[in-house]
Design goal:
Helix content is about 35%, strand content about 30%. It is of the alpha/beta class. Bound molecules: adenosine-5'-triphosphate (ATP). The site of adenosine-5'-triphosphate has 11 residues, from strand 2 and helix 1.
Length: about 300
């Protein structure tokens, strides 16, 4: 297998805080790989180590076969990193920002116009090339940050929550660009809090408290979900979750948009569960069995107490 990124037995602490606790993962070349996990899971720490800004306490990490602690400049040359708060220059125009990052990454002068033209084609920012970066919308700023990250033609992209806080249309456009980059052979590791984005990845790892709890294609993680999921379209009932959790067979009760998801043992049937919940709550209950969503898998993994630590 041709891996663009490998992480083996990697740990990193900040003083007494163990941010990453012995993780192992591999990202095959040309994949769009998602890292999903709640705040503080260790995603940023892992990404900063991959791009050589932090040193691991233990473990081996490679980018395109190059060790990130021993071949720092090679790794930097082949990597594009977009941190959570990417520093664009607000008083420079879109075009000047691109020129600045081209200089910073040592892109040969004669290649800059062609690189810019290609990035304008991707980002569709050409109509705004003279606008000051500080006056772009949130979505356009993220596209410009991505373009600056791409100016030196990296083969591996590390993107830390690139669309957090960006409007849904711009998020969709941003992911279209990621798919185009992938089609051109770029390997992308991206962290995201959005399950709709995680679903667009070829592979994902769910990270929590410094560990990887599950990895695979989104479809395989959903298929492996061991519980039955029922939707209850009465949000007010979430206040009575403790009474529902006391019903035998019920595993979890979770608010989901305008419904409540109740998970239960796989052999539980809707009519029996509705009857048992109705008896416990002293009122009629209507529910439907639904297919698990990636969010069900995520919540189950992250919120179920673990006994292995
Ligand atoms: P977020 O999306 O909030 O950045 P994350 O999954 O990226 O979350 P990290 O930022 O890697 O997680 O943080 C992992 C743990 O390490 C957290 O407990 C965090 O508080 C801690 N941490 C991160 N950076 C530092 C630092 N510079 N000094 C001390 N603790 C830190």
């Amino acid at each position: 297998m041709d891996n663009a990124i490998t992480i083996e037995g990697y740990s990193k602490s900040y003083g007494a805080i163990k941010a990453v606790d012995g993780i192992t993962l591999a990202v095959e070349r040309g994949t769009l790989y998602g890292l999903i996990g709640p705040d503080g899971a260790g995603k940023t720490t892992t990404m900063r180590t991959l791009v050589t800004l932090l040193r691991p306490d233990a473990g081996t990490l490679t980018m395109a076969g190059h060790d990130v602690t021993k071949e720092v400049s090679v790794v930097r040359g082949i990597t594009g990193y977009m941190p959570q708060r990417f520093s664009l220059y607000p008083d420079l125009s879109v075009d000047q920002n691109l020129s600045f990052f081209a200089d910073l990454f040592g892109v040969p002068k004669h290649e800059v116009p062609a690189r810019k033209e290609r990035l304008y084609r991707f980002s569709r920012l050409d109509a705004f090339s003279n606008r000051l970066a500080g006056r772009l919308s949130g979505g356009m700023k993220q596209k410009l940050a991505l373009s600056c990250t791409l100016i030196h033609d990296p083969e591996i992209l590390i993107l830390d929550e690139p669309t957090t806080g960006v409007d849904p249309v711009s998020r969709t456009e941003f992911w279209e660009i990621l798919r185009e980059l992938k089609a051109q052979g770029v390997t992308i590791l991206v962290s995201t809090p959005y399950m709709d984005e995680a679903l667009q990845c070829d592979q994902v790892s769910v990270m929590h408290a410094g560990r990887i709890l599950a990895s695979g294609t989104p479809a395989s993680l959903i298929a492996a979900f061991p519980l039955a999921v029922f939707a209850l379209y009465d949000r007010d009932l979430v206040l009575r979750a403790p009474e529902m959790l006391a019903v035998p067979g019920v595993h979890s009760v979770q608010a989901f948009g305008d419904s409540i998801h109740v998970t239960a043992a796989p052999d539980v049937v809707a009519s029996a569960l509705a009857g048992a919940l109705a008896a416990a709550l002293g009122r009629e209950v209507t529910l439907t069995r639904i297919a698990p969503a990636l969010e069900d898998v995520f919540i189950e993994l992250v919120e179920t107490p673990r006994h292995d630590s």
